[in-house]
């Protein structure tokens, strides 16, 4: 595994579509910290986090894992303090409504603030 670019003194963000067993995220985070990243965040749409993933994350150098609520993860949240969930139910509901009514989907990407 190689790091391309300079991460020393920087915040590193690892992005993927889903987190399942978390071993690769833990390994990448360790390498980024070794190369000087001062914080490592992991972000994924789907937080499956099966098997030992919550324990691996809790005991790793990862500072925080952020996932959406597309998959129930109450058990994982209770096992790991580093996991945070972002509710996207309003966004999904609005997308479904817009598709049903033949309205613009681009509105969702132009007019939704960070607080929504």
Supply the key terms.
4 strands; four-stranded parallel beta sheet; 5 helices; single chain; 35% helix; alpha/beta; 116 residues
Describe the protein.
This protein has 116 residues and is of the alpha/beta class. The mean pLDDT is 93. It is 35% helix and 23% strand. Strand 3, helix 3 and strand 4 form a beta-alpha-beta unit.
Please state the average pLDDT score.
93
Q: Which structural category fits the helices and strands?
A: alpha/beta
* Number of beta strands: 4
| Overall geometric form | globular
Please trace the helix and strand order, writing H or E for each element: EHEHEHEHH
Number of alpha- plus pi-helical segments = 5
Distance between the termini: 37 Å
Q: Biggest sheet, open or closed, and with what strands and sense? A: 4 strands, parallel
* CA-atom Rg in angstroms: 17 Å
Q: Report strand %.
A: 15-25%
- How is the largest sheet built, in terms of strand order? 1-2-3-4
User: Oligomeric form of this entry?
Assistant: single chain
Which stretches of 5+ consecutive residues score pLDDT under 50? Answer: none
- Percent helix, as a range, is 25-40%
Compact description:
With about 120 residues, the protein is α/β, with parallel strands linked by helices. The protein has helices at about 25-35, 55-60, 75-80, 90-100, 105-110; strands spanning about 10-20, 40-45, 65-70, 85. It contains five helices and four strands; from the N terminus they run βαβαβαβαα.
